[in-house]
Design brief:
The protein has 57 residues and is mostly helical. It has 2 helices and no strands.
C-alpha cells in the first residue's frame, strides 16, 4: 500500500509542472496510473478478505 501511495504522490508531483524543451520526458502520468491501479487492487483484496475476519456465528 505504501508503494502505491508513493507512486501516486510522485506522479502528482511530476505531472504538476511541464518543461518547454526537455532532454527527457517525465513519467508522472505513468506513475500516477500505476499507483491508482495498485491501490484499487489492494483495496478490493481488503474488501473481499474483510469478511473472513469475523465469525458468522
Amino acid at each position: 500500500m505504501s508503494t502505491a501511495m508513493t507512486k501516486i504522490v510522485l506522479g502528482r508531483i511530476r505531472t504538476r509542472f511541464t518543461q518547454s524543451n526537455p532532454l527527457w520526458t517525465q513519467d508522472g502520468e505513468k506513475l500516477l496510473e500505476e499507483g491508482n491501479s495498485e491501490r484499487k487492487e489492494l483495496l478490493e483484496i481488503l474488501r473481499t478478505n474483510s469478511n473472513l475476519i469475523y465469525d458468522i456465528d
